């Protein structure tokens, strides 16, 4: 009885940790995607230097 209760609490904690890890992974992927997009935009010649400077600042804030 005590062991079952302990296992149930452990399962709940592990599920919570797993959920947090999944959220963390999605956030990291999202940040990396945004950094890649900004990097590509910096290489495009159609943007002026002022706008490219803003892209650089945005990239540092991610």
> Level of helix content?
over 70%
Order of helices and strands: HH
Count of distinct structural domains: 1
Average pLDDT metric: 86
Q: Which percent band covers the strand fraction?
A: under 5%
Principal-axis shape equals rod-shaped
Main sheet overview: none
What's the N-to-C terminus distance? 49 Å
Weakly predicted, low-confidence segments:
none
Alpha carbon gyration radius: 21 Å
Characterization of the model:
This protein has helices spanning 2-43, 49-61. It has 62 residues and is an all-alpha fold. The chain has one domain (2-61). The model has no long low-confidence stretch (mean pLDDT 86).
Provide a quick synopsis of the model.
The protein has 62 residues and is an all-alpha fold. It is built from 2 helices and no strands.
List the helices and strands and how they pair.
Blueprint: H1 2-43, H2 49-61
Helix pairs in contact: 1-2
List keywords for this structure.
mainly alpha, 2 helices
